[in-house]
Structures are given as C-alpha cells and as structure tokens.
Specification:
It is built from nine helices and eight strands. With 260 residues, the protein is an alpha/beta fold.
Length: 260
C-alpha cells in the first residue's frame, strides 16, 4: 500500500522535550506533513522558517456553532485563522462544536443539544463554507469522543459531524474523521469510513486505549488502511498520537500500517 495516502503527524504530540521548530524540521526530513493545534501558541515566523508542509491547524480561536454570539465569534476568529493559514500554506483548517480549553474540555459545556441548536449549527457551517469559498481554503469539522477526552462537547459524535457537514454539502467544508475518537465513542471504524467517505477531508488516527501509535492497542489499522484503499480514498492520514517510546519508532509503526 506504499504511496496510497498522504501521511502526516501532529507535531504537538511527538518529541515533546524538543523545540517546535526542531520537531517540524524532523517530520519534514522523515517525509511527513505536520499538523499543529492553536496557531496563537507559536511564533509564526518560526513556523514559516521550519519549512514544514502543514496538513492542518485549528481554524478558529474562539466561538461556538450553535448560538448567535458564539457563531459571530467563530466566524471572526476563523477569518483571522484563514489569514494565518494562507501565510503558512496550511492545507486544511479544523473546527469543533465549541472552543476547547485546558485538557481539551469545552469552554462552554453542553449536556443537551436542542433542535434549535442543530439549525443554528448548520447555519453557522454554511457561513463557514461561504468564507471558505471567498478565501479559497478548506475547513473541516472534527468528531471527538465524549466518554474519555471531551465530555460536554456539542456535536462531537461522528454521526453529528456527518449529519451537519453532509446537510451543508459544500465542497470546501469537509470532515476531519478522527478514528481514535470514533473507536471510543461509536466503534465500527470501517463502516463509518464508508458512510463518511464523500465528505472526508482528512483522517486522523491513534490506537485505543492510550492514544498512541498503531500496534499499541486494539485497532487493526492495517485492515482500516486496506478498507480505505478499497473505497478509493487517497487523501491525507495524520497520526495524532503520543509515542509509546521513541517518536521515530512510533512514526515507523504508523508508516507500516498506512504506507506499506
């Protein structure tokens, strides 16, 4: 399966004792694209200087999908993120149902999503798609898991993100299909890949439990990779995982699972 996918890795989670510029340069040397989280946490000149090819970054600073004030804030900070993303030539800008704070917990927790919130979230994503068309970028809505990492996050389940993105159905609004989160929240990874396929912008992976590289947990990622290939997917796959030991060994395990 060598060359079937464009492989990247989240620079935030590997070599955590090394400076970010070093991490980005090393990923580039090893032939991987790089993912980053909040661009505000980094020196933009350093990110440019690193020479990395950026697979994705967070595409907003604050805001929410499902209320007027939150939607306006999301759109305003998404516009700022577009400017940064274009400067860094980031391929895709990532969104969530609400802003995430310390430890990945939602800034504005929500235990019950109402019908009115669904309608507003769809309207907000349509506005995001308008912004994407205006500026020539791609936004993605990422699914998260509620039981372990992101309790209280609205529109977190893969079924939720698929329903929203497919209902908007615009070419510059995609899914960031995170299979680590799917495994914890729903399971049936290959089934969800198949259902989400027309709208996938990127696939992110980590093993379960532990959120580490393939081979450390219960997921048969070689089977998932084979299924994605048979479905015709040839897009980006990003390792968003911690290393169980040596980071380069973790990347090698990822490449074996998805690269050949």
């Amino acid at each position: 399966m060598s060359g079937d996918f464009v492989l990247g890795a989240c620079a935030e989670m590997l070599w955590r004792d090394r400076p970010m510029e070093w991490r980005l340069r090393r990923l580039t040397e090893l032939g991987f694209e790089a993912g980053i989280w909040n661009w505000q946490a980094h020196d933009l000149a350093m990110l440019e200087r690193s020479g990395a090819k950026f697979s994705s970054m967070t595409g907003y600073v604050a805001g929410r999908l499902a209320d007027d004030a939150g939607a306006d804030e999301l759109l305003a900070t998404a516009r700022r993120s577009v400017e940064v993303g274009k400067r860094l030539r980031v391929a895709r800008l990532n969104l969530h149902g609400t802003g995430l704070g310390d430890g990945g917990l939602p800034v504005t927790p929500c235990e019950r999503v109402t019908g009115a919130m669904w309608i507003k979230a769809r309207d907000t994503l349509a506005r995001i798609a308008d912004l994407a068309d205006e500026t020539g970028v791609v936004f993605m809505l990422e699914n998260l898991n509620l039981p372990v990492d992101h309790p209280g996050t609205p529109f977190a389940r893969v079924a939720d993100t698929l329903a929203l993105v497919s209902s908007v159905d615009r070419p510059r609004l995609k899914l960031n299909l995170d299979l680590y989160h799917v495994q914890i929240g729903e399971g049936d990874l290959i089934g969800w890949c198949r259902r989400c396929l027309p709208w996938i912008g990127e696939v992110q992976i980590a093993d379960v439990p532990g959120r580490m590289e393939p081979g450390t947990g219960e997921i048969n990622y070689r089977a998932v990779a084979g299924a994605l290939k048979s479905m015709g997917y040839r897009g980006p796959v990003c390792l968003e995982a911690f290393a169980s030991g040596d980071a380069e060994a973790a990347l090698a395990s990822f490449r074996v699972a998805f690269g050949g």
